[in-house]
Structure to design on (235 residues):
């Protein structure tokens, strides 16, 4: 706690004072362009990864970056998505998973969750991810299985977003784009799902992130690569 208090003092005496004009403007309202849906994992810092300023991202975080299908739960996730669309008029939604995700480990191997019934219940909203992985990747184990779950879960959550009337309407009018990303903690790379090739490929200045614009659920053309970085981008 002492470290947090020192951080508050440092923020107030340095960063805040140096950016008073920005914070004065932010006090008048927010106009973010993007809803970022990502995991609660402490190793994920969206503003750091994307080098964004306060007010540029509307962020929704939970264990496993999960969005239950519309009507399944009347909770914070549905309300946040609705608010982002209706009140903030955001133009992009990004679902970003990450390497070494504990939630996906628990989803695929639930035995350690016996003492955490609320966590187990929450991960039940990602049961479609587990079924996809068990059906499409029966030969995988260990880290390869986890990697497949992390990627497929991002795609399942994009499918779930399409069930929200506000999202479907904006997609239909061409006023919203969806993006599926995976952040690799150990390398700093972020991969984006490319619907045309049905693969996750590395984002770079020369390779802007692909958008998934269809209103229909994603049709997987093939199994996803279980390696984080595609071979051609590693070369």
């Amino acid at each position: 706690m002492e470290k947090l208090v020192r951080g508050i003092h440092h923020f107030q005496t340095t960063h805040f004072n140096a950016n008073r004009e920005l914070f004065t403007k932010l006090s008048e309202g927010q106009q973010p362009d993007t809803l970022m849906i990502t995991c609660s994992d402490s190793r994920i810092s969206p503003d750091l990864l994307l080098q964004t300023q306060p007010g540029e991202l509307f962020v929704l975080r939970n264990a496993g970056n999960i969005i239950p299908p519309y009507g399944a739960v009347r909770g914070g996730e549905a309300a946040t998505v609705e608010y982002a669309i209706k009140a903030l008029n955001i133009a992009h939604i990004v679902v970003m998973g990450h390497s070494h995700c504990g939630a996906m480990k628990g989803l695929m191997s639930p035995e350690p969750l016996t003492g955490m019934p609320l966590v187990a219940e929450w991960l039940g909203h990602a049961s479609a991810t587990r079924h996809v992985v068990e059906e499409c990747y029966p030969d995988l184990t260990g880290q390869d299985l986890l990697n497949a779950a992390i990627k497929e879960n991002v795609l399942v959550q994009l499918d779930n977003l399409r069930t929200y009337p506000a999202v479907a309407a904006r997609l239909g009018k061409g006023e919203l784009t969806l993006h599926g990303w995976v952040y690799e903690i150990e390398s700093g790379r972020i991969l984006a799902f490319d619907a045309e090739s049905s693969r996750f490929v590395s984002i770079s200045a020369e390779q802007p992130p692909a958008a998934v614009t269809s209103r229909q659920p994603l049709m997987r053309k093939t199994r996803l690569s279980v390696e984080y970085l595609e071979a051609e981008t590693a070369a």
In short: The first strand starts at residue 34 and ends at 39. The CA atoms of residues 113 and 120 lie 6 Å apart. The first helix runs from residue 2 to 18. Residues 229-235 have pLDDT under 50 and may be disordered.
